[in-house]
Fold this sequence. Notes:
The protein contains 12 helices and 5 strands. It has helices spanning about 10-25, 35-45, 60-70, 90-100, 110-120, 130-150, 160-165, 170-180, 185-200, 205-215, 220-230, 235-245; strands at about 1-5, 30, 50-55, 80-85, 105.
Amino acid sequence: xxxxxxxxxxxxxxxxxxxxxxxxxxxxxxxxxxxxxxxxxxxxxxxxxxxxxxxxxxxxxxxxxxxxxxxxxxxxxxxxxxxxxxxxxxxxxxxxxxxxxxxxxxxxxxxxxxxxxxxxxxxxxxxxxxxxxxxxxxxxxxxxxxxxxxxxxxxxxxxxxxxxxxxxxxxxxxxxxxxxxxxxxxxxxxxxxxxxxxxxxxxxxxxxxxxxxxxxxxxxxxxxxxxxxxxxxxxxxxxxxxxxxx
Length: 246
């Protein structure tokens, strides 16, 4: 397994090198300080994974990815391209994804983000790109769903959850919508309402207490959302369910 790090910042390259070797000592790590040098390495070495910055002198990461994809190559299996970027460069990240980048990490990079990507690829090295991507996405959705259920009484903003799982909020939002066919906000509200129904049916807790347990600080607003969702107020829902159970 060979990994290529492309970045014009020596400290960044050295830091990533140490992290990768700590996680996978057997992996061979190469480096390039601009896109042109990276293409030269890719043309002459069988690279499995490429981590690349976007903004670099001589040739940036986007141009490198574009040129390499357009050239064609003799690889039996092309490398996975992972880009890393700051928040203000997200438009560039979107462009890189169009040219086939598998994923991207947020700066400053840390061991958790790099580990997530390497596990995703190395753990599924014998599968196709599509299989790897779909499998990872499905696992991510389930992990996030579990996290949401465990923290249903908290705020749960898209930004906070995305960063917790080492994703850019915009990318996470797009991925979430494509996999669940609903927005993150709508999904969280659905989980809150389902949990509220469960508590109304199975406990004698007051509505104001249930509201707090499912993440609403204002019980009047909770009642408004509940009624808009089920066309019935919370207490009426409780009475109806208990009549049905008798």
